[in-house]
Amino acid sequence: MEIAQIYIYPIKSLRGIAVEEATIMECGLQYDRQYVLVKFAEDKPNEPEVIAIKTNSELCLFSTAFHEDGESLTVTHASNPTETLTLPLTPFRDMLSATYPITLFSTSTIGFDMGPQAATFFQNHLSDPTIKLLFIAAPRDPHPVLTPSIAGDGLVKHPQKIRFMDVAPILLTTSSSLSDVTSRLPADSDMVSGGSFDITKFRSNIHVTVPSATPAYDEEFWTEIRVGEKDKEVKFDCTFNTARCLSINVDYQTGKQAPQEEQIYKRMMKDRRIQPHFNYKPCFGRYCVCDTFGAKIRRGDKVEVVKRNEERHVDVA
Fold it and tell me: Is the pLDDT of residue 143 over 60?
């Protein structure tokens, strides 16, 4: 097995970037989801609401790219690709203005306002004058901080935190599971491109190619994997399976929900509702944590399953 693709999503819910390598940081992959878009209700000027693709499907029309200078990020919109917004990958303190509290899945942090230029860019494309772009001030403590194990190894705490991800720092997916999802759609579906469903709709960070004989969703039994060559291996603990939302139904070409007959969410509902605490949500992908901060992973790195559960883990401590 090996890493087929690595993806980073610098701004939450916008299109991501395929990269050749990534650095493991305290909050997951470096630069992943360090920005977030928010809007404000008229009667709550100091209480931002996070804008996410599950309720604002047009966010998929924004693309992001790392600039060749290695220090900045460019954002474009499908309606006018020549108009660009440039953002620093590491903003200096004097670039930041007002701060706002942000809460996601019961954990909180502070977001720095990136100023009027960034705000205007998104306000114009999303037709909402209240929108602001925020940079995370400090990492959030993830809600599930334990690695659960049916195998009896106990519960192991991890120091890894998160930025504007939902609940965990790194998401792993596999080729066999993606093939299963793709097979659920008609071959001529607009949701299938190049013979496959778009894995970035699942917000995959690490997409692993597995042998053709590997059953779909085998990763749901993995508890520990190692990536890379001997003596340079990076260990990942696989913590829990990922419940999905309606964002996977979005057509990235139109920025709208796909027609009913091409929506993958309902097709996965038939047999992928495996988490008792999320009875109405299908699962796809495996959340991971890694505390080898500063280590690099690369496309093509070997992946080895070191530990696995005999039963699928279906709960979070």
Answer: no
